[in-house]
Specification:
Blueprint: H1 2-21, E1 27-35, E2 41-48, E3 53-56, E4 60-67, E5 73-81, E6 92-104, E7 108-117, E8 119-122, E9 129-146, E10 153-156, E11 159-165, E12 168-169, E13 176-181, E14 187-196, E15 201-212, E16 215-229, E17 238-240, H2 251-272
Antiparallel strand pairs: 1-2, 1-6, 3-4, 4-5, 5-16, 6-15, 6-17, 7-14, 7-16, 8-16, 9-11, 9-13, 9-15, 10-11, 12-14
Helix pairs in contact: 1-2
Amino acid sequence: MKNLGRILLCGSLLITYFTNASAVSTFGTKATGSDLEPVSAFLSDGGEGAAFASVSFTTFQAQAGFDPLSTYLPVLQAESNGIGATFDDDRTQAEAEAYQVFTSTITQTIDLDIVLNSVVTNETGGTSGVLSNIYVFGGSDFAVQNGFCSGGQFMFDSIYMCGDETATSSRNGLTWSNLFNGGTSPLLTDTLSFTVNTGESFGIFASLSAGSFQGTADAFNTLTLDFTVGPNGDLSKIAPLTLPSPIPLPAAVWLLGSGLLGLIGIASRKKAA
């Protein structure tokens, strides 16, 4: 019985460890949309640990996911139609967001190439537009956590990306990428450059918003991201810390539980013998 008790205690501690360790996923997606008139609607989908999120209504749609062909970087789409708005606050909004944590097995400088394709129209008095923001966080204090962190970036729900903003924008020298189309810039590009050390983790958070009032904002074709490296870099050395998947991480706990039951059975048979 003493050995059996030790087995159960170890199993309990391991289950607690796995549960706490997976409390905040290293990836997530969120899609939201809202409209006031003529039919009020607010839709939301996804969250921390979601590999795909999507909302759709007559006046808006948004999708967030990951592209396996670009090392599982975020792919975001959003579209809204605010033609015929009757009040000043009747703004139609669609938003897609995603974050992913990566690691590099070598020290290298990485370029994150950003392309935003969108079409914006505005009638008289219209204020429609498409906005994207992309952040890169890293450093020794890097973390994704449930709750506020000083200097971190709020993403969605209560999830923050923490650490140092390690990138520089080729477009304006900011530490993040900020692109906006108010109707005259259908194709916008930017590059965020940053350096990672061997074994270091870094996170990317991307958001895309399509808001419209007396006009339309179509960014469904689409916000895309892609890694490139210089002659001394190696794309194959960059990988997500966790592959986005609809299969929940706690499945490992069930496997652990099955193993414990097997050990208990073996211990019981030895005692009977």
